[in-house]
DNA sequence: CAAAAACCCATGATAATCCATGTAGTTCCA
DNA sequence: TGGAACTACATGGATTATCATGGGTTTTTG
């Protein structure tokens, strides 16, 4: 599955329409249907989105929990109940539902941030703050140490040298 | 099987008719018959519903229990005895049986909540309370931690890491 | 025959679709 | 290497289709 990369800020018009960055669209298109799945993050004032493959991934993760259990229902209420299936129109735009815009404080601009298997949608100013913190954390906390190479992908390593 | 997503509140008219959200209808339609299976929840004041595929799934789950065991009989009494096959009319509406409306305290509005393989029908105010709790649980109990990537989809994990 | 259920039609609001324009980025040629 | 033509993309506005909802009419059923 191809990864979402980059950061793009587009205008939201009076009807709530926004252009999905072309790069993201082409990825979504290769996944089958021409639409995205979008849900408010339960971690902050932004939206989480992705193509059909992202939806399948969520399905698989949540299906590992018993169908009528309490954790399942709590998560389902968030991941399904709060999410929307949004189709992309002929011009590459989506309409962000009112509640979603409210959750992310999005008024007339939205920032799309590539995030690998999915992408995030932020109010530009809020993302700037998050971004600054993330960069600072990545440096000061030596988070780089968490990033171990995967053997299957990068098998060639002469000897013990790792970090 | 496509998942039910989103949350929609529709009016119940004097005859007990409610529009099934269009998004849900199209999913149900692709499953064959144009009708839904609906039963009162045994966990709370709301209804559980789904398309033909959901019915098949219930059959399979219940058949895994011994046919003459007590759990089987108890669940069968609810899932079969209390459930109804409700057809969707030409305008995309269903009529909720009186007992069902009573069970969920539904008067003049009903909230349809996408829940993956099935969807729930709630009295709007009651769902708002449930939703608030679910959101709080998802955060405070770190339920997000339950959502580990599934290897089949995101194969990149060095070794044994699974749950 | 009465009550209820299924069916048909009309309407306003909302969402999807179509068309036109500006702009930035790229290519190609002089 | 500079500039002109072209292309891809984002964006604005107008038109059309879809959907939820209310009301009426026919058909079934007890």
Task: Describe what this molecule looks like in 3D.
Chain A has five helices and eight strands. By secondary structure, chain A is α+β, with helices and mostly antiparallel strands. In chain A, the strands form two sheets. A six-stranded antiparallel sheet of chain A has the order 1-7-8-4-3-5, with helices on both faces. The first copy, chain A, is globular. The two termini of chain A are 28 Å apart. At the A-B interface, helix 2 and helix 3 of A face strand 7 and helix 5 of B. The structure holds a DNA duplex (30 and 30 nucleotides).
Helix content of chain A: 25-40%
How would the global form of chain A be characterised?
Answer: globular
Distance between the termini of chain A: 28 Å
> What's the helix count of chain A?
5
Could you tell me the strand content of chain A as a percent range? 15-25%
Trace the largest sheet of chain A across and list its strands: 1-7-8-4-3-5
Q: What is the chain-wise order of helices and strands of chain A?
A: EEHEEHHEEHEEH
Question: What is the number of beta strands of chain A?
Answer: 8
Task: Summarize this entry quickly.
Two copies of one chain form a homodimer. With 163 residues, chain A is of the alpha+beta class.
């Amino acid at each position: 599955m191809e990864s979402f990369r980059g950061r793009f800020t587009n205008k939201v018009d009076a009807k709530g329409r926004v252009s999905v960055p072309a790069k993201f669209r082409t990825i979504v298109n290769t996944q089958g249907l021409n639409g995205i799945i979008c849900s408010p993050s339960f971690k902050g004032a932004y939206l989480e989105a992705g193509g059909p493959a992202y939806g399948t991934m969520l399905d698989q993760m949540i299906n590992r929990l018993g169908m009528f259990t309490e954790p399942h229902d709590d998560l389902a209420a968030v991941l399904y109940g709060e999410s929307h299936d949004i189709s992309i129109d002929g011009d590459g735009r989506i309409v962000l539902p009112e509640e979603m815009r409210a959750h992310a404080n999005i008024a007339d601009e939205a920032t799309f941030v590539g995030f690998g298997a999915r992408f995030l949608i932020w109010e530009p100013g809020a993302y700037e703050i998050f971004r600054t913190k993330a960069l600072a954390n990545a440096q000061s906390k030596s988070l780089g140490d968490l990033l171990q190479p995967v053997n299957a992908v990068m098998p060639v390593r002469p000897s013990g040298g790792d970090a």
